[in-house]
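hiii so my PI (J.) wants the whole complex modelled not just the main chain, which honestly fair. so below is everything: two entries, each one labled with what it is. i double checked the lines twice but i was tired so who knows lol
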Amino acid sequence: MIYFDNAATTKPCPEAAEAAVICASDRFGNPSSLHHMGVEAEKTLASAKRTILDRLGKEGEILFTSGATESNNMAVFGIAEALKRRGNRIVTTAVEHPSVSAPMKKLSERGFEVVSLKPKEHGDFERAIIDAVDEKTVLVSFMAVNNETGFIIDTKTVYGGVKRKNPSCAVHVDGVQGFCKLPLYGDTVSLSGHKIHCFKGIGALYKNKDTRLIPLSFGGGQQGGLRPGTEPVELAAAFEAAVKAYPENLTIFSSLRHRLTGHLERLNRIIINSPENGIDNILNFSVLGARSEIMLHFLEEKGIYVSSGSACSKGKISPVPEAFGISHERADSALRVSFSRYNTEKEVDILAEALEEGIKRFAR
Amino acid sequence: MEVIMAKYGEIALKGLNRSNFEDLLVKNIRRKLDKIGKFDVTRRQSTIYITPLEENSDLDSAVKKVCHVFGIAAVQRSAVLPKDINEIIKQSVPYLKETLERAKSFKVEAKRADKTFPYTSPQIQQELGGALSDAYPHLITDVHNPDVTVLVEIRDKGAYVNAEKITAVGGMPVGSNGNALLLLSGGIDSPVAAYMMAKRGLRVDAIHFQSPPYTSERALLKVETLCEKLTEYCGRLRFYCVPFTEIQEALRDNCDNDYFTVIMRRLMLKIANIICERSHCSALITGESVGQVASQTLAAIACTDKAADFPVLRPLVGMDKKEIVETARKIDTFETSILPYEDCCTVFTPKHPKTKPLLSDVLKEESKFDFEPLIKKAVEGITVKDFKI
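here's the output for the full assembly
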């Protein structure tokens, strides 16, 4: 089995699995309990938070969530609600994950003016985002790394630019595909465990001290009342272990990408959809004349797993390619290959060989 | 005690072989109730009695299940009371409480199958009606158009009282009219076609054509889910899955693309012929509806029909899409059918299919390649899966 769908999810690393088991066996207390077990559980959470903050290079709060969809909802609705008296304009992009674009749609129904920018219409996209901010803008929300193409929006540039223009405007960054790979600048940043070799079911929202959120759910007041419910201690321990195990040095991605693009250059009918300066671990390309789904299942028969786009949409047409200026024909035949540190150059060679066979059989 | 009384539909009209139909119906009901609990299912005097054999039997679920058995026209949930007028009155009053409190008007209808019972039907009606009026003074008696009709049946084994007749699916018992093989694509139509033919007493098997890698594992799972849902009405069902990729590729590479769909459907029927024969089915079923798509024009149907060695039943032939969708929703297959996975019918679809193909042209095009060896290979590669209620 060759797994090249790491932007959809990654294989949990042994470190994460071990941490969860140890925590579940010995330190399974409820962090709210007054006794020793509770204290131990609280320490586990605190340690996990510290590790994540360190990896982000930030001070502030970490709120554990069920995943990035919840984190994005908490941030987008929570900030909009908190700042609605100051203004009603929100700036976002047309290439967001549904867990941001769907809340945006709701906010727009509730009377917010949501400005959605398309990368294809702007040469300097960071500049375009900053330019769209005015004095009544309360929130800028965008993804650091696009899950379908690997397109990067430089969070440092945007964050600095927005704050200079309107210091009271909050910046939310969907950091799912960027965490552990890029520096992430935002007032709130959403993170997902299962994209960095932890389990599904845990994510986090980073929040700096100054940003106020209105909570979406109510209960026992855990996590400062912003995300009530007993904290997922075992999963948090696994999250911490996965972060620690994630290497700082990511040259493996650039060499895998380099090897794959080398192969693709000599194959017919291939057009690369990812930008050249996109993130190294995601490469999106089209095999002209061969529908994505067919090629995907063909590769699957050979034990190679890739994606036809965003796995979250399962067959539905995504509006994202259009916003990147990718034609319908290209989108219809797009494949996304996404690497993890467990992939090898040998696997890339096998993929290239299979692609060549697939092109001969299907492309017409 | 409460029982479920199930009344026959059409088979009540049968003559000498009626008991065969009745026995089959009883068997079908027994099979259906197997998972819910222990029930005694027996027939007496043109009614099937379903008696729970355990405390806390789930009678609500049983009623729902029995309503989905073809051959049953109506279902009544009844109290079984001693054959004594005072007991009938005494126990009916509390038993009917919920129903009567919700109603504004009512009447009592009595049937005396056991003529040894000392009261006549009108007398029973009078006695019980009076008692119920006294107990529920808000009720008015309305013999023409009542909200609730309380039915009292004096039968051999007891007095049965009920106030609600639930309409069931009707039709004929599954299996009473033989077996047929359904061409099941995964779309909205074919499951509805299966439902309609099962309603006419056919036991249905299904054949599906799969074209990996053009179609996915999820497309197959979807079709299997449809089979599972169909068992609710069709009972047990055998599912044949045909590997169809090579045939489709050969067809794409060797024949005029405009004839792709009509020849493909002919080849499907040729494979279905073989399975039909092998599985002792005497007809094929398709979900075709005239004019719905290019392959379902009268001319195209005429061309595909010629490839079939068995009668092709097309129960949806005169139905509108809207009616088909309504039935699909009713039998709970719609949501599954609309899952957006490619099926073997949608891959390689030509841009401009022939809407009025001539059989001679189709045959000429089809003869450009010898499909027989591939058909044989496909049949050898068939996988079989059985679905039970």
